[in-house]
């Protein structure tokens, strides 16, 4: 709670549900319901975004701990409480979630024609779950939000998705659920061992080293699937290809970040010994993800699939950054997460723009779009280059920091990660050339229209953010600098402590 | 002797007989009035249960404590909701006869005696009263081949289970010299431990009781009986008797056989694992939603037994919370199934639900909530049931049980979300008939409970805690 005693986080989290209740209560014929549902959802998400800007304004970057903390008694006799709060690591992801939701709603304005009310309802519920995941300071509450994401996302892919949507929705649901239940076991084990599920307390609790190993793999099962890491990434291309555009945006923009957030929030600080011991494994998986999925991306015929595989590669880089345990690496991972959240979301929106016009995502069906769609070509180019990591865009900052962090750990790690970045340039530029350049020979493309004002409104904030993050990264990284420094310092101290114990017991 | 401890049971029995006489004497169709009277009697019994003092009566045959009160209230609630579901169904199927509520009341009396049993003889008496009445209601649609077949099957297999139970009781009595729970606890707590004959007797008792909760390997009757019985009876079968039988298992395992925990724990673990796996895997291929619910209930009973295997107060508390959650979401699901009626005919294929999201959004939403809850997705109530159960397993160090439990819940999630898929993604198969207000009431009420359980778990957890404490002394 801030100085005025105002529960801003709960408000941001649960206000979308109020909007949802309003949407539920709309009566009338289908046209009226659809239009009212759209406007209600848009206004709700805009108000939520406006409220979340209070976090941006009032957040104190100098304080490494949790801020805006609110707590309420829920089941005190079992060490469970409703507790919310944000620190430097989570605050910007709350903002990312609240910023992407109105964009998604705007992007679905005309595309979604059937069951509009349910669609908007699902998005608002999804927003609550996403924001809650990043704010929760009680492990069980966290799990409830983390898992609750599945219900709306399953429905969004399943109802409004493409032809193979049923297969994809099931795959998404069952993969994620299988990982999450192991996380649940781990949470229960911690809860049974320490008697509390309070995250700030647990961050300073030393768990037995043997237990840490088991917990690490239980966490890994959940977060690796969510991230996703090779080899459990296979649900992602399917889910992305079949999901409606806005679904892909949220999936790539926010849901993937939950996995990395889990590593940063739980695995590294709570299980320092195990994370240090298994860091080489994580590096290996990260490097494989970066290189292997980049090659796979090169071979794709479907635009969404290509971008989905590029997401896996980017997340591989994030994994490497997190497990370097140094300030540059972790800051780089955070920056990469934030940047990827905006850039990949924008890339999916770009695909959505031409998909809405031509109803195909096959790369071979396009070519020479620059002749008819100059504005679109510029936007697409900006985000392609940001995804590649061109200096001056947001992608560059994250990648260079991760590289610096990795270099401190191991030269070869940095080199192999760098190879992945080169491959990234290859597949993105190859995609761009095939879609935008060349001669406009295909007859059906002759009359394609450039961005509409609504689409400009969708892209404008993303363009602005991408450039802002690239040109003046300080205004974002200052949020988490203190928290990351404290985390790294604590991690080192805990390892040192463990080493001392090992020496003493010898 | 404090006979008033059994006042709820006495009042219910008298009410059941009075309703019977009333139904016979009335010339015209009196089934609606009888149903209402039965509901009133259940409500009255609930008040009496709350008011009844704690203690034991009838020479130690009958006990009233926090545990029995908890289980009885749950049994009464489940039975009343099931009775409400039967009103319109019975009228539609032409089986609205006044005997139905009377028989249900006798089942309830039997279950309440089971819950309060403090002696193997009381246990058997209650179990038989409830079983015999239950066989009849299962076959209540006497003109339907399926219903009669289900009733007969249930009767034959149930009689076999009763025989096993009785045989086990006689062995226990033979080797320990008593049927009273407290005397048994004393005898078994003695340092020389249990003789092999006694252990064999306990195994038979477990087999007889586990039949009632339809856990593997005593589950064979469940799918056929669930499918054949009239749907409200299936709803009833899958809730209140399960609660009563599970309460009975808890009491017998914790009180008289508590000292033998090391002997029976492995057995319960195996039963639990087998039930969880079968419940998850066998339901995948089902096309009939009632059969699917049968396998689902087998799986749920497997989870409940995890709590018993843990054997701690937290485990027993988890069992009770799980039962509360289970009763409401199961009855709600059956309310939705009873609402599946097209051109006056009851339909029960999963495919019949196709497109419900568009033809009847309200019903689809409620059913989707129940399905997600059964799969254990937070923040719905089903998640909390599993949370407490698995917490107990983890605390007791039963990692294998916990991991198998969560993994089977992933497999189970497949068939639950498949129903959601059929409702929301498939092309509509035509609208259902308008549903009676009573069904909407029950579905909405249980749906609200399932959705908002997370806001007020406190009272339930507290009551369950008090009840579990009683058993472990």
What does this protein structure show overall?
The complex is a heterodimer of chains A (506) and B (473). Chain A is mainly alpha-helical. Chain A has two domains: 1-198, no CATH class; 278-500, no CATH class. In chain A, 75% of the residues lie in helices and 3% in strands. Chain A is built from 19 helices and two strands. Chain A has a two-stranded antiparallel ribbon. In chain A, strand 1 (67-75) and strand 2 (80-86) form a beta hairpin. The longest helix of chain A is centred in the last third of the chain and has 32 residues, at 327-358. The model of chain A has no long low-confidence stretch (mean pLDDT 87). The model of chain B has no long low-confidence stretch (mean pLDDT 89). Chain B is built from 20 helices and four strands. In chain B, the strands form two sheets. A two-stranded antiparallel sheet of chain B has the order 1-2. A two-stranded antiparallel sheet of chain B has the order 3-4. With 473 residues, chain B is mostly helical. Chain B has a domain at 261-473. The interface between A and B is medium-sized, with 34 and 35 residues.
């Amino acid at each position: 709670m801030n100085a005025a005693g105002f529960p801003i986080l709960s408000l941001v989290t649960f206000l979308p549900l109020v909007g949802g209740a309003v949407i539920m209560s709309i009566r009338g014929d289908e046209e009226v319901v659809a239009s009212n549902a759209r406007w209600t959802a848009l206004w709700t998400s805009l108000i939520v975004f406006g409220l979340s800007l209070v976090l941006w304004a009032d957040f104190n970057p100098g304080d490494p701990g949790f801020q805006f903390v609110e707590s309420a008694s829920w089941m005190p006799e079992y060490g469970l409480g409703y507790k919310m709060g944000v620190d430097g690591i989570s605050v910007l992801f709350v903002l990312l979630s609240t910023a992407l939701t109105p964009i998604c709603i705007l992007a679905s304005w005309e595309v979604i024609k059937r069951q509009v009310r349910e669609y908007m309802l699902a998005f608002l519920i999804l927003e609550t779950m996403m924001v809650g995941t990043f704010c929760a300071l009680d492990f069980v509450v966290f799990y409830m939000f983390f898992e609750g994401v599945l219900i709306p996302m399953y429905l969004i892919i399943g109802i409004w998705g493409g032809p193979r949507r049923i297969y994809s929705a099931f795959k998404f649901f069952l993969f994620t659920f299988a990982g999450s239940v192991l996380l649940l076991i781990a949470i229960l084990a911690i809860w049974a061992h320490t008697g509390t599920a309070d995250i700030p307390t647990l961050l300073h609790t030393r768990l037995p080293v043997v237990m840490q190993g088991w917990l690490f793999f239980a966490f890994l099962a959940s977060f690796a699937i969510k991230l996703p890491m090779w080899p459990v990434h296979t649900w992602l291309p399917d889910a992305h290809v079949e999901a409606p555009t806005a679904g892909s945006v949220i999936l790539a923009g926010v849901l993937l970040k939950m996995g990395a957030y889990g590593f940063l929030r739980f695995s590294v600080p709570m299980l320092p010994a195990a994370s240090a011991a298994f860091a080489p494994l994580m590096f290996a998986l990260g490097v494989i993800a970066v290189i292997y999925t980049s090659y796979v991306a090169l071979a794709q015929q479907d635009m969404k699939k290509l971008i989905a595989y590029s997401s896996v590669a980017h997340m591989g880089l994030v994994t490497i950054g997190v497990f370097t345990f140094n300030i540059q690496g972790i800051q780089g991972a955070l920056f990469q997460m934030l940047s990827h959240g905006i850039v990949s979301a924008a890339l999916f929106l770009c695909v959505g723009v031409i998909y809405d016009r031509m109803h195909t995502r096959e790369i071979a069906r396009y070519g020479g779009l620059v002749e008819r769609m100059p504005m679109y070509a510029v936007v697409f180019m900006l985000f392609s280059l940001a995804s590649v990591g061109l200096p001056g865009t947001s992608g560059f900052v994250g990648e260079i920091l991760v590289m610096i962090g990795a270099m401190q750990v191991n030269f070869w790690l940095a080199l192999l990660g760098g190879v992945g970045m080169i491959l990234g340039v290859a597949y993105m530029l190859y995609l761009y050339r095939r879609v935008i350049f060349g001669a406009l020979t295909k007859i059906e493309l002759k009359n394609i229209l450039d961005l509409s004002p609504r689409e400009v409104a969708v892209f404008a904030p993303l363009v602005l953010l991408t450039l802002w993050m690239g040109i003046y990264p300080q205004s974002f990284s200052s949020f988490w600098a203190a928290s990351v420094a404290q985390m790294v310092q604590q991690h080192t101290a805990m390892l040192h402590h463990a080493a001392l114990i090992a020496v003493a017991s010898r | 002797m404090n006979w008033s401890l059994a006042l709820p049971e006495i009042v219910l029995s008298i009410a059941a007989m009075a309703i019977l006489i009333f139904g016979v004497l009335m010339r015209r169709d009196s089934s609606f009035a009888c149903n209402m009277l039965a509901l009133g009697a259940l409500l009255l019994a609930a008040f009496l249960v709350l008011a009844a003092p704690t203690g034991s009566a009838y020479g130690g045959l009958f006990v009233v404590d926090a545990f029995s009160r908890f289980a009885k209230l749950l049994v009464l609630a489940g039975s009343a909701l099931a009775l409400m579901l039967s009103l319109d169904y019975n009228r539609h199927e032409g089986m609205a006869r006044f005997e139905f509520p009377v028989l249900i009341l006798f089942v309830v009396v039997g279950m309440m005696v089971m819950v309060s049993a403090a002696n193997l003889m009381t246990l058997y008496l209650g179990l038989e009263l409830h079983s015999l009445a239950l066989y009849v209601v299962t076959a209540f649609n006497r003109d339907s081949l399926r219903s009669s077949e289900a009733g007969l099957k249930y009767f034959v297999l149930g009689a076999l289970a009763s025989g096993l139970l009785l045989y086990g009781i006689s062995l226990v009595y033979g080797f320990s010299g008593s049927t009273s729970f407290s005397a048994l606890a004393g005898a078994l707590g003695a340092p020389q431990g249990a003789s092999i004959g006694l252990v064999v007797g306990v195994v038979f008792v477990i087999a007889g009781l586990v039949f009632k909760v339809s856990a593997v390997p005593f589950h064979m009757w469940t799918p056929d009986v669930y499918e054949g019985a009239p749907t409200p009876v299936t709803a009833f079968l899958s809730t209140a008797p399960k609660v009563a039988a599970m309460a009975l298992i808890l009491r017998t395992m914790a009180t008289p056989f508590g000292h033998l925990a090391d002997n029976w724990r492995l057995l319960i673990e195996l039963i639990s694992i087998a039930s969880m796996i079968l419940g998850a895997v066998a339901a995948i291929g089902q096309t009939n939603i009632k059969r699917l619910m049968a396998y689902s209930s087998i799986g749920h009973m497997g989870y409940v037994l995890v709590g018993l295997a843990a054997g701690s107060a937290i485990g027993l508390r988890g069992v009770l919370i799980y039962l509360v959650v289970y009763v409401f979401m199961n009855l709600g699901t059956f309310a939705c199934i009873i609402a599946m009626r097209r051109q006056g005919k009851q339909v029960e294929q999963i495919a019949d639900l196709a497109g419900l999201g568009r033809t009847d959004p309200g019903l689809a939403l409620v059913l989707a909530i129940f399905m997600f809850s059964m799969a254990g997705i937070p923040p719905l109530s089903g998640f909390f049931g599993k949370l407490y159960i698995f917490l107990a397993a983890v605390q007791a160090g039963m990692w294998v049980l916990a991991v198998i439990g969560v993994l089977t819940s992933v497999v189970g999630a497949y068939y639950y979300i498949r129903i959601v898929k059929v409702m929301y993604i498939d092309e509509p198969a035509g609208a259902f008939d308008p549903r009676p207000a009573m069904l909407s009431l029950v579905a909405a009420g249980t749906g609200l409970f399932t959705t908002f359980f997370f806001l007020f778990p406190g009272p339930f957890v507290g009551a369950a805690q008090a009840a579990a404490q009683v058993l472990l002394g």
